[in-house]
Amino acid sequence: MVYVDQLFRQASSNAQAYVVGKRHSHKWCHLWADSVDELIKFALALGLKRGWLQNESGRFPHFDLVPTYRQRAIANGAVEMAFRDWYLNNRRAELVVGQKQPITQQSQNAG
After folding, report:
1. Do 46 and 75 meet the contact criterion of CB atoms below 8 Å apart?
2. Where in the chain are the domains?
3. Staple 17 to which of 4, 12, 73, 110, CB 3.0 to 4.6 Å?
4. pTM over 0.70
């Protein structure tokens, strides 16, 4: 599954990103997925470049989206979710069943 979080305002320290951000009042959000392959496939379908993938720490592969791309992502099936909620669901799944998969509503009700 692919996700977007809420828009936030932040001016980038990267010169190119700053110029892009300025055109959108420095509003951004994150686009991420349950797997890197799924994320890249979805991002390419949106028209993003693979080189825009951010994963410096190796812990949170994502793309930064301006508002227009966020709207496109949602129209193409991305789920709106706070990153914190997604992280906590994944962390709970990791602790309970030893795997890095989000706990779905259905699986919570099954147990």
Report:
1. no
2. 2-80, 82-111
3. 12
4. no
